[in-house]
Amino acid sequence: MELYRAHVLVCGGTGCTSSGSAGIIDKFNEELEKHNIKNEVKVVRTGCFGLCEVGPVVIVYPEGAFYSRIKVEDVPEIVEEHLVKGRIVKRLLYHDSVAEDQTIKSLDEVGFYKKQMRIAFRNCGVIDPENIEEYIAVDGYKALGKVLTEMTPEQVIETIKASGLRGRGGAGFPTGLKWEFTRKAPGDKKYVCCNADEGDPGAFMDRSILEGDPHSVIEAMAIAGYAVGADQGYIYVRAEYPIAVKRLTIAIAQAREYGLLGKDIFGTGFNFDIELRLGAGAFVCGEETALMASIEGRRGEPRPRPPFPAVKGVFSKPTLLNNVETYANIPPIILKGPEWFSSIGTERSKGTKVFALGGKINNTGLVEVPMGTTLREIVYDIGGGIPGGKKFKAAQTGGPSGGCIPAEHLDTPIDYESFIQVGSMMGSGGLIIMDEDTCMVDIARFFLDFTVSESCGKCPPCRIGTKRMLEILDRIVSGKGQEGDIEKLELLAKNIKASALCGLGQTAPNPVLSTIRYFRDEYEAHIREKRCPAGVCQALLRYVIVAELCKGCGLCARNCPVGAISGEPRKPYSIDPDKCIKCGVCMEKCRFNAIKKQ
Amino acid sequence: MAVSVLTENKEKFEEFKKVIEEYKGKEGPLMPILQKAQEIFGCLSLDVQNYIAEELNIPITDVYGVATFYAQFTLKPKGKYKIGVCLGTACYVKGSQKVLDKLQEILNIKVGDTTDDGKFTLEATRCLGACGLAPVMMINDHVYGRLKPEDVEGIIAKYRDE
C-alpha cells in the first residue's frame, strides 16, 4: 500500500457536483502532476460533507483545512501554497473555521458541526464511496461478519429491538419488531427491500447516504436478510438520483466480487443478493404497498393493510421494508452494541436523526443530531440563523405529510412524539425554514397542489377530497375567499384523514391543519381583508410608489409592460392599480427602492 | 403496425430485443423494460408498447396502464434539451416559480410543452435534492443552482446556439 503525506477530499455529492466539483478533482490531479507530487498527495472524491451551502467543499488533511466555494481557478493556488509550500490559503477557508486568533479550528469545533453527531452519516465525506476497500478499512462488513459467524438470527433481532431504533422513513415504527414479524411470518421465500424512493420535497439525506456510503446500506440489508431469512433484496431508488444509482450499481458489483453478496457469504452457507429497481417519478411509491406494486411492475397504487408487508409483501411473499437511513444505523448498532445506541436520544426516540436543512437559513445542508436536540439549536447554532436579519416564522417538517412548527415551539426537543404533539411529524427529515416573507396560506396551497397531483386516484377521499381543499385554497389566495372557508377546510381535512386508503391521503391535510392552527390570522386576513400579510400572494398585492423616495426618473414607467405608471419628470410617479398586472418589473428596475408591495 | 416500426428502426429494435431477453426471466420485469425502451426510442409509442406486450405475453392494457401512471414515462417524443425547474419546497420558498415563469416567457411555451423546433421541453419537477443550491433547474443532466430569473436568458441562449 502506498503512503501519502496529504489527502485532498473533494465532495462528490449532488450539491457540490452541480457546482462543479468534478472539474476541481481533475484540476487537482493536473496540478499535482505538474508539481510532481502525485505520489505524495492523494485526491479522493467523497460523499456529502453536509454543508452544501458553501459548496464545492474541499478538505485537506492532515491539517483539516476546510476550503469552501472553491472554483477551478483556486486549485493551482491551493496546490502551490498549501501542498507544496505548506502554507494554508486562509482566503479560501470557510469563514467559521478560522478562530479569532487566526488558528485553524478542527472540524468538530466549527459551529455547523459542533452539535452534530454522525452515526448514519459516519462515512459520508470520509471515504471514497466507489471503493469498497475504503469502506472495509473503516470496519465495513465487519458487522455482517460478526452476525454470520457469531450470532443467531434471533440474537440479531433482539439486538435491534434492544437498541430502540425506529423507522427513519417517517412513521417511526420500531425496527426490531418489524424484523421479528417478518422472521415469524410463515413462508420459505422472503424478501428484504430498501425504500430509497425519497420523495418528500426538501429531504435529501437518503440520497446523500447512498451517494456517500452505499455499502453501509448493502451490508445492513444482508444483515437483515440473515435475520429474517431472506436471500433476495431489492433497493427501490428514485430515478431522479443519477449519482446515487451509479454508486449503488458500482457498490453492488464490488460486493459481489468480494463475495460479500451472492452465494455462501463468508463460507457460512448464507446466500443473499440485491437487485436495483428504479422508480419512474411517482411520489406515492414511497408508500410501502405502492412501492411493492411498483417493484412487481404494476401501477404504484397502494392497497389496504392488513395484510402488512411482513406477511404479504413483494410477489405476495413476506417482505421486510426499511428506509435508507434506518439501514445505515444497523452496522454500528451491531458493532457497538444496543446499549451504546440506546444511551443516545430521548426516552422513546433513540439515536440520531438526519435533517435536510433548507429554505431561509444561512447554513443549508445536511445535519445529523442526537434525538432530543431542540429546533432552536438546529436553526440558530447549527444553521446559523436566518439570512438578512429576518425573523424566524416557522419550520416545516415532514414534507407534504407534516406541518409547520411556529416560533413559540422552537424549544421542542426532537423526537417522534413531540413533533406529533405540536401538530407536525418527524417525516423523513426535511426541515424547511420560513421567515416573515413566507405566506403560510400559500405554503399550505403549495403542499396541497403537490398531493393533488401525486394522488394515485385510487380512493375518493384523496382523489376528490384533496382537490376540493385545493380549490378552496386557490380561492383564498386569489382574493375570493369566503366566510366559512376555514371551517370547510377543517371539516374536509378531518374526513380525509379518517377515510383515505394510505398514508399519502391520510396525512395530506396536515399542512393545512397545522397552518390553520398556528396562523389562522393569516387565513382571516386573506379572506376578510383581502390582504396577504407576507406580501406573497400576487392577486392580493398592490404595488405603490413611495412619493418621498421617488426621484421622478421615469425608469419604472418606461419598463412597465402595460403602461400603468404615469407622472411628470422629476416629480413622484404613481401606479394605476386597475391597469397594474403586478409583474414586479417596476420594483426590480427602481434604483431608489421607491416601489413597495402592500 | 408493429412491423413498420420494426423495419424503420431495425437497429434500435435489435438492441431492445436483447434488453427484453435479459429481463424476461426475472421477476417483475415491466418497469425496467419500459425504462430501457424509453432510453432507446426516446418515448413509449403505442408500437413499442404493443411489442413489449407481445414479447412478455401480457395484455397491452397492463403496459399502457403502467406507462401512463408514472410521470417519467412519456408517450410523445421530448425536446433535445429537457429543462426541469425544481418546485420542491426549498426551491419554491426561494422563488423557483419566478424562474419557471421566466422560462415560459422566454421559450414561449407552457409547462409540459415542447418548443416547435423540438429543441426544448419545459417541465416542473419534483425535488431534485439539491436543496442546498436552491432554486435549481436541470437541463438534461446538468444542474444549475442559486438561480435568479435574470440568469435564465443567458443559460438558454447557450443551448439555443448549439
From TrEMBL, chain B:
<dbReference type="InterPro" id="IPR036249">
    <property type="entry name" value="Thioredoxin-like_sf"/>
</dbReference>
<feature type="binding site">
    <location>
        <position position="127"/>
    </location>
    <ligand>
        <name>[2Fe-2S] cluster</name>
    </ligand>
</feature>
<keyword id="KW-0479">Metal-binding</keyword>
<dbReference type="Pfam" id="PF01257">
    <property type="entry name" value="2Fe-2S_thioredx"/>
</dbReference>
<dbReference type="InterPro" id="IPR028431">
    <property type="entry name" value="NADP_DH_HndA-like"/>
</dbReference>
<feature type="binding site">
    <location>
        <position position="86"/>
    </location>
    <ligand>
        <name>[2Fe-2S] cluster</name>
    </ligand>
</feature>
<dbReference type="GO" id="GO:0051537">
    <property type="term" value="F:2 iron, 2 sulfur cluster binding"/>
</dbReference>
<keyword id="KW-0001">2Fe-2S</keyword>
<keyword id="KW-0408">Iron</keyword>
<dbReference type="InterPro" id="IPR042128">
    <property type="entry name" value="NuoE_dom"/>
</dbReference>
<comment type="similarity">
    <text>Belongs to the complex I 24 kDa subunit family.</text>
</comment>
<protein>
    <submittedName>
        <fullName>NADP-reducing hydrogenase subunit HndA</fullName>
    </submittedName>
</protein>
<dbReference type="GO" id="GO:0016491">
    <property type="term" value="F:oxidoreductase activity"/>
</dbReference>
<dbReference type="InterPro" id="IPR002023">
    <property type="entry name" value="NuoE-like"/>
</dbReference>
<dbReference type="GO" id="GO:0046872">
    <property type="term" value="F:metal ion binding"/>
</dbReference>
<feature type="binding site">
    <location>
        <position position="131"/>
    </location>
    <ligand>
        <name>[2Fe-2S] cluster</name>
    </ligand>
</feature>
<keyword id="KW-0411">Iron-sulfur</keyword>
<dbReference type="InterPro" id="IPR041921">
    <property type="entry name" value="NuoE_N"/>
</dbReference>
<feature type="binding site">
    <location>
        <position position="91"/>
    </location>
    <ligand>
        <name>[2Fe-2S] cluster</name>
    </ligand>
</feature>
